[in-house]
Structure formats: C-alpha cells, structure tokens
C-alpha cells in the first residue's frame, strides 16, 4: 500500500523554538524529554532528574551512564494533578483535561516521529475495500481494520516500535484515578496503542472494539482514549440507534476510559469542531487542523 505524501507528516511536527511567550524551561523540558523518550529505551541524562549515577548501577545489564530507570518519573509532569472525573455510565468515565499542555506537546512529537518513520501514517481500508476517514499507525501491536492485530505494519511490513513508557505510565495513572471513582473498572497492562488522526471533515462510524483477545473482552479490560487538538463530538451507547445514544464533547487533554460493563459499547465520532485547539497548544506545535487520538488497550 502506498504511503501518503510527506506533506502530511510535515503538518504534525514540533516547532524548533517555542513562541516568545513560552519560557525557556518549558522548551528545555519538551525537547529534553519528549524528543528523547520516543521509544522506551531512549535515554534521559541522570543530571536532568538529579539522581546519582551510583544509585542506578546494575551488574546484570550493560553499563550505561544514563539513568534510564527513572524515565517514567519525568512523564508525571505531563498530567494535571487536579483533573475532574465525570462518570458517563457504569465502567465509563471522562477525565477532563488530564493531560496538560506539556504532555500534549510531547505526545504530538512522539506521534509525528512515528508517523514519518517505517510503518508511518496511512489511510486504511475496511473489508469491503472502502477507505476509512482517518490516518492511522500503531505503537506496540499493529492494528488494521481488515487483519486485526498483527506483528507487522500492513503498509510496509515493518514491526511497530514499543509503546513509550510515558504513554503507559500516563494511562495507568489515569486508570488509577478512574478506579477511585468506580470500583468495577479493571487495571490493564497496555500493549497496543492505535494512533489516529482525523482531519476536520473525517468521521468515525459507530462500531465496537472487539478485536482484542477473548480473555481481554471477558474481563472487560478498559480502553483508554486520549484526545489532542480540535474537540470532537463523541457518541456512545448499547445500540446503533442514534436516538438512543449519549454524546459527550472530548477536548484536547481529555482521557476517556471505558471498560467493565461498558467495554463493548458502540461509539463513534460524529463531528470535529474546527478551531477548538487550545491556543497555548497551537503556539507549541504545528499540528494541522483536526483531532489526534491515542487508543491504548491490552490485547
């Protein structure tokens, strides 16, 4: 399958220097962490996080002067500590503004680097051969609407990179917050991250996420969906009948989690609200109009 033109990739990229209204420390953090932690084995200097090198020696591993064991701690700065949770139905909760602007910027940067690399963004087809209205790529396990989960990208046969530790830590912390509001939500160990980019005219038809393993579905292991960029109108419910569906606005930085009794809900994106990207995010990244979504699951 042919990959889309490089102009798509150039549209989602980190500005090399932030606007004059942004502090230099903010820029240092973005370029010192999000650029370096694209894949979980990328190093972060111990000096950045103030951990003595002597504290991280491990004779069982190749010697490194880099403190890669404390990488997840850096990503704690990506989440808002005082997020609000709204229970939409049993097993389904919306964490408003959970990912702060620093985290959103880092996520865009990581997805841009994935998108321009092997197995980058492409427009998938469904089983009938019709093109879907979005660009996709994956971390961890690759997913395609025709073949489901695969070890390799259908676009070029390459293997997907591991999910960055920071993505996993961010989602695990969000699920812990969600569990404080509802006791029927299981924990997960995310091993699949589907990255989707919706242009302003794109849509997501009503569907169920049921390509995961029978064990995962039986346990109701939740899906964690991260929203970046323009807001979207998200519809959900137990049926395809639009008259019986609920709807909620997903804005940049929100994390929607649905599992347990809500694991197999029908859901879709009916509308993308052009021009709703947060101004401070727009200053930090050159992301084209549209909606970037990360969907993390345990197969």
From TrEMBL:
Keywords for this protein: Dioxygenase, Iron, Metal-binding, Oxidoreductase
Cofactor binding notes: Binds 1 Fe(2+) ion per subunit.
Residues the record lists as binding Fe cation: 207, 209, 267
GO biological process, one term: oxidative RNA demethylation
GO molecular function: broad specificity oxidative DNA demethylase activity; ferrous iron binding; oxidative RNA demethylase activity
GO annotation, cellular component aspect: cytoplasm
Key word Hydrolase present: no
Any Pfam family: 2OG-FeII_Oxy_2
Residue stretches making up the Fe2OG dioxygenase domain: 189-299
Highest taxon of the lineage: Eukaryota
Gene3D superfamilies hit by this protein: Alpha-ketoglutarate-dependent dioxygenase AlkB-like
Cofactors required: Fe(2+)
Family recorded in the similarity comment: Belongs to the alkB family.
Name assigned to this protein: Fe2OG dioxygenase domain-containing protein
């Amino acid at each position: 399958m042919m990959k889309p033109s490089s102009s798509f990739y150039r549209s989602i990229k980190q500005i090399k220097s932030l606007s004059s209204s942004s502090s230099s420390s903010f820029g240092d953090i973005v370029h010192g962490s999000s650029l370096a932690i694209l894949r979980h084995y990328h190093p972060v200097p111990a000096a950045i996080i103030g951990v003595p090198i002597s504290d991280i020696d491990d004779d069982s591993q190749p010697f490194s002067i880099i403190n890669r064991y404390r990488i997840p701690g850096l990503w704690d700065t990506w989440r808002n500590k005082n997020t609000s949770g709204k229970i939409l139905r049993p097993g389904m909760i919306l964490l408003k503004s959970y990912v702060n602007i620093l985290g959103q910027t880092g996520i865009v940067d990581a997805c841009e680097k994935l998108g321009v690399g092997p197995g980058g963004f492409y427009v998938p087809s469904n089983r009938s051969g019709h093109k879907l209205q979005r660009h996709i790529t994956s971390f961890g396990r690759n997913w395609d609407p025709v073949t489901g989960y695969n070890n390799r990208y259908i676009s070029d046969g390459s293997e997907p990179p591991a999910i960055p530790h920071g993505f996993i830590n961010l989602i695990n912390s969000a699920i812990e917050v969600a569990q404080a509001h509802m006791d029927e939500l299981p924990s997960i160990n995310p091993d699949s991250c589907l990255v989707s980019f919706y242009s302003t005219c794109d849509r997501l038809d009503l569907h169920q996420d049921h390509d995961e393993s029978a064990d995962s579905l039986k346990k109701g292991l939740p899906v964690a969906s991260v929203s970046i960029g323009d807001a979207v109108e998200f519809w959900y419910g137990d049926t395809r009948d639009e008259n019986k569906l609920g709807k909620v606005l997903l804005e940049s930085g929100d994390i929607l989690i649905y599992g347990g009794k809500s694991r197999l809900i029908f859901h879709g994106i009916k509308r993308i609200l052009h021009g709703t990207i947060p101004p401070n995010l727009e200053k930090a990244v050159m992301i084209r109009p549209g909606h970037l979504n990360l969907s993390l699951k345990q197969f």
